[in-house]
Design brief:
The complex is a heterotrimer. By secondary structure, chain A is mainly alpha-helical. Chain A is built from 27 helices and four strands. In chain A, the strands form two sheets. Chain A has a two-stranded antiparallel ribbon. Chain A has a two-stranded antiparallel ribbon with strand order 3-4. In chain A, β3 and β4 form a beta hairpin. By secondary structure, chain B is mostly helical. Chain B has a domain of about 90 residues: Four Helix Bundle (Hemerythrin (Met), subunit A) (Up-down Bundle), CATH 1.20.120. In chain B, α1 runs antiparallel to α2. Chain B is globular and about 55 Å long. By secondary structure, chain C is mainly α. Chain C has one domain: Helix Hairpins, CATH 1.10.287. Helices cover about 80% and strands about 0% of the residues of chain C. Chain C is built from three helices and no strands. The longest helix of chain C has about 30 residues. Chain C is elongated, with a radius of gyration of 16 Å. The chains are: A mainly alpha, B mainly alpha, C mainly alpha. At the B-C interface, α1, α2, α3, α4 and α6 of B face α1, α2 and α3 of C.
């Protein structure tokens, strides 16, 4: 890395921000160091052998469900601690702490600049692809949006790294785990800091790789490896969209940098085909990465990975990359109202669909997984209607409370496992029917989880309330006097579509409140169903794990203050701080959507909307509290099978089965019959490979016939040749 | 051409055509004879005619060695071999190909001839008339007949000349080795 | 007489070619090759009147090579005859690999 960087003339160039390249470089360093330790461990057989995990797990943990959650078993007191565990524990979270520190320093440098920070600071490291008409540099773009993302990634990432130190401490693959986690943070920072779509795509693919590696972290269990493959393959569909969008941009806009595309996009005709096509393909990429309809199916399966991974990658950061992509391409999307409406509708539908599935899951992590899909839908609704600030705001608050929920569930699972392990019981430690009454055994986790639940349900003053309310009120505000309301989506007027989206948003909010309360009731309230013997072993997780929970709980509590609605009038603090912060990046795009007018509703309407949202959330909680009876619940092994709608919801609307029948099996069938038997065996092997051989043999046979060995024949051939050559000269 | 006779060109032309026609006729007879001995003798006749033409074309030395080496030495070897192998017995079947083969060979021969003629015409357009200066008496007188050949052979082509001697030596050894009758001990 | 000489050369060469094609006796084919060499020699001699004595030098070389060729070729034919009791090329396909 170069230390003497070209002076760009940007006011940030002289500040601490010139070390922006260190942000991704530090986790990369961590990856390298941990990777070396992991390889050294792999080279020395014994307890450090990663494959030892599988033997151990098979011997002590049974998985009646077969989906391998049991591997979240960190107790393993019989497994020797990894020899270099303490070094890894220092490096892994350490580089994240440094990254976060640097990010905060840069944040203050940016804040000091104030209004002078109107243009992004782009630091070019070196030319990456200098080709004829396309030149892509490895350049980092530092602006308000990427800063928010960097802070979330490094901050929440650091907390989750800390949690992992406790959660994974006895895992034989401990250094490998931290190597992957550091690598993930590196790619994620590359994704948000890259100054062009191709560099972003590198990060995009990189986080996909890390996601794959970490979902299949306990790869010796086939279900985990399959879940990793599923995530990877489903994401490829989205990546195809991302690639096509880049091709379209290069072919039509002749640039791939964010700056260049943003400028060129403004030249495009409003609502034109090109802008719409680019946006829809970009959105396809976002749909894959951020688990929206129809590509959401990988995310629930991704819960096969360690729980901190679920928190970091599959809740707080990576899955929000799609939202970031849309926000980053705000100018383009503002030029394509139809694409924006598509984003909003898909987001709203996903929010509702995932929420319905979440209502009836028994696996605590599955509930949270569907909740994540649902909340991601919310974010897309936000960025879809051009309320980029609201979308990013929800992204941020969601990172806080969802990381908290996942880590909290991790603590619960950890405790359950410790208990089951102590008695050598082989029950499913993630099934809520086996929990209940845990509030008496782990009060800290219980309290923090309730904060997160109220936050996600949208109860003031918790963080989720502000962000969710802002999204919903933005949708309502767009129904009149915006480009979206004037556009037509599949023949439906835009304003009608937006009312529908708003209604779906409310419905999703109601169900969110219900299923989250249900999860809390079944897990922490009512009588304990773990078992008589195990009950005594249930206890709070160590402080290295609960510490990060406390910090996240605090953030979930006060996260809303980052962007208080204008209606508070600055009574509680600076109102709309995030909005003003992001103004230089997305303000212009939002203004295009709102036809240049301020996007605010009248105070009366806004209060009414807030009231409705809070009422619905409260109603959801009330419904759950009064309808559900944790006391009647039976442990998983005694529970009766579900019937009717419940069964359909438990089986996730049979979407996986439908995909299996409609897509996977036909693809496999076509692959087998057409591609393998037909093309590969028939065409390539038969015609091309063997056919070429046959042709050559035929030629060889012909040639051998010429070689009769008779001089007379040769003389005739010689003469014919001579005549042919001479005639070529004669007839010239 | 030393004679200043006015009939000389006519006589020269007559003689030239005579030997030429005899050469062609002998060649045709050579190709069509069934007996190898007869064929060899007609070939010798062709060579004599060619020797005469060489002399008429002011290549007296070449004409002489044509008679000595070709007709006198090489063809004799051929006839010796034919007789040694006792070929050309009247009872033997003819070695000439069937009618179809002969016709096709004839057609191909005509095609080749026509092409060579066309090429000769197009390659040497107007120069086929003899430049007078080359064969003047004076030119012949100063250098003699063999002089120019010797000068060329032993100066310009000396290396090639020496190499031919090696070639001949090799040929002699080769012929002896190949033609040697193999005893029972080294048969293989 | 130059044009006539070249024409005669071409004619004799063609007769030699036709001989090679129509005969099967190895010795006669060999003699046909000799005829073709002679035809070429005639061309050399005729053109030497135009271009100097080099053509005649070449004729001498050709004769030398022809002599060497005759020695080796006839030795081969004798060897083959000893082995096969025939010089008919139809019976001989030793060149077949």
């Amino acid at each position: 890395m170069q230390t003497e960087l070209p002076h760009t003339g940007h006011p940030l160039a002289d500040s601490v921000a010139r070390f922006v390249w260190l942000l991704p470089a530090l986790p990369l360093l961590g990856f390298a160091l941990n990777g070396i330790l992991a390889l050294r461990a792999a080279a020395t057989p014994g307890p450090a052998d990663p494959t030892a995990a599988s033997h151990d797990a098979h011997a002590h943990v049974a998985h009646p469900s077969g989906d391998g959650h049991g591997h979240d078993d960190a107790a393993g007191h019989h497994v020797a601690r990894h020899p270099s565990a303490s070094l890894v524990s220092l490096i892994g979270p350490g580089v994240l702490a440094l990254t976060f520190g640097l990010a905060v320093a840069i944040l203050f440098a940016m804040r000091d600049l104030g209004d002078a920070m109107h243009a992004p600071y782009v630091q070019t490291l070196f030319a990456w692809m200098p080709t004829g008409s396309l030149s892509v540099d490895v350049a980092f773009q530092l602006d308000q949006l990427s800063m928010v993302m960097v802070l979330i990634i490094s901050g929440v990432g650091f907390l989750i790294h800390l949690f992992s130190v406790g959660y994974m401490q006895d895992d034989p693959g401990y250094p490998r785990y931290f190597a992957y986690l550091n690598l993930f943070v590196f790619f994620m920072l590359l994704l948000v800091l890259g100054a062009s779509y191709p560099l972003m795509f590198v990060g995009w693919e990189g986080v996909g790789l890390c996601s794959y590696l970490l979902i299949g972290f306990w790869f010796s269990e086939k279900a985990n490896a399959d879940a990793g493959k599923k995530a990877f393959i489903v994401n490829r569909i989205g990546d195809f969209g991302f690639l096509v969008a880049m091709f379209l941009m290069f072919a039509n806009l002749a640039t791939l940098s964010f700056d260049g595309v943003g400028t060129a996009a403004l030249e495009l005709p409003m609502g034109g085909t090109l802008a719409t096509a680019i946006c829809l393909f970009l959105f396809l990429g976002a749909v894959g990465k951020s688990a929206q309809i129809p590509l959401y199916v990988w995310l629930p399966d991704a819960m096969a990975g360690p729980t901190p991974v679920s928190a970091l990658i599959h809740a707080a950061t990576m899955v929000t990359a799609g939202v970031y992509l849309v926000a980053r391409s705000a100018t383009l999307f503002s030029m394509a109202p139809v694409a924006q409406l598509t984003v909003a509708v898909i987001g709203a539908l996903t929010a509702v669909l995932a929420a319905t599935i979440g209502l009836k899951q028994w696996d605590i992590k599955k509930v949270l997984a569907y909740s994540t899909v649902s909340q991601l839908g919310y974010m897309f609704v936000g960025v879809g209607v051009g309320a980029y600030t609201a979308g990013v705001f929800h992204l941020m608050t969601h990172a806080f409370f969802k990381a908290l929920l996942f880590l909290g569930s991790g603590s619960v699972i950890y405790a359950m496992h410790q208990a089951y392990h102590a008695t050598h019981n082989h029950e499913d430690a993630q099934d809520m029917r086996n929990m209940g009454g845990l509030r008496r055994h782990m009060p800290v986790t219980f309290g923090l989880m309730w904060i997160a639940t109220l936050a996600i349900a949208g109860i003031p003053p918790f963080a989720g309330f502000f962000s969710k309310d802002e999204i919903l009120s933005s949708v309502f505000a767009r129904t009149h006097g915006s480009t979206l309301a004037d556009a037509s989506w599949l023949g439906i007027p835009g304003s009608a579509v937006l009312y529908g989206v708003y209604a779906l948003g409310l419905a999703a909010a109601l169900m969110t409140a219900i299923y989250m309360t249900r999860m809390m009731l079944y897990t922490f309230h009512g009588p304990n169903r773990t078992g008589e013997l195990e009950r005594g072993h249930l206890k709070e997780a160590p402080w290295i794990m609960t510490g990060p929970l406390v910090v996240l709980g605090l953030l979930s509590l006060v996260g809303g203050w980052f962007n208080l609605p204008a209606i508070t009038g600055g009574a509680l603090g600076p109102d709309e701080a995030l909005h003003h912060w992001l103004e230089p990046v997305v303000g212009a795009s939002t203004a295009i959507v709102t036809n240049g007018e301020a996007a605010h509703l009248s105070h009366g309407t806004e209060l009414a909307l807030i009231g409705a949202a809070v009422l619905i959330a409260a109603a959801g909680i009330a419904i759950a509290v009064f309808r559900l009876k944790p006391a009647d619940l039976k442990p998983a092994k005694d529970a009766p099978a579900e019937q009717g709608l419940e069964k359909t919801l438990l089986n996730k609307w049979y979407v996986d089965e439908a995909y299996d029948k409609a897509v996977v099996r036909p693809t496999l069938g076509i692959s087998r019959i057409v591609l393998w038997k037909g093309v590969d065996t028939g065409l390539i092997d038969g015609l091309f490979v063997n056919g070429t051989g046959l042709l050559m043999r035929a030629f060889g046979w012909l040639g051998s016939q010429l070689q009769s060995g008779r001089v007379g024949t040769y003389a005739w051939a010689l003469l014919l040749g001579a005549i042919a050559v001479l005639s070529a000269f004669s007839f010239r | 051409m030393t004679m200043g006779n006015q009939f000389y060109p006519l006589l020269y032309g007559f003689t030239f055509y005579f030997f030429g026609l005899v050469a062609v006729a002998s060649a045709v007879l050579f190709v069509t004879r069934k007996s190898p001995v007869a064929a060899a003798l007609w070939l010798v006749n062709v060579m004599f005619c060619l020797a005469a033409l060489y002399i008429m074309l002011d290549a007296q030395f070449v004409g002489a060695i044509q008679v000595l080496v070709y007709a006198g030495a090489i063809m004799v070897v051929f006839v010796f071999v034919v007789m040694l192998l006792n070929l050309g017995h009247p009872s033997e079947l003819s070695d000439i190909r069937g009618k179809a083969g002969r016709i096709i060979a004839g057609v191909l021969g005509l095609a080749l001839l026509a092409e060579v003629m066309v090429l000769a015409r197009s390659q040497f357009p107007a120069q086929l008339t003899l430049p007078a200066a080359v064969t003047t008496d004076a030119a012949l007188g100063t250098a003699g007949i063999i002089g120019p050949i010797a000068a060329s052979l032993f100066r310009q082509y000396l290396l090639a000349f020496e190499l031919t001697s090696i070639l001949l030596l090799t040929a002699i050894i080769g012929a002896v080795v190949i033609g040697k009758k193999r005893g029972p001990t080294d048969a293989g | 007489m130059l044009a006539e000489s070249l024409a005669l050369s071409a004619l004799l060469f063609t007769i030699g070619v036709v001989g090679v094609l129509t005969r099967r006796n190895a010795i006669i084919i060999f003699m046909c090759v000799e005829l073709m060499l002679n035809a070429v020699n005639l061309s050399f001699v005729a053109l030497s009147r135009l271009y100097g004595a080099t053509g005649q030098v070449f004729v001498i070389f050709v004769m030398t090579v022809a002599a060497a060729e005759a020695a080796v070729g006839l030795a081969i034919i004798i060897a083959i005859f000893r082995h096969r009791r025939s010089v008919n090329l139809e019976d001989i396909n030793l060149l077949k690999g």
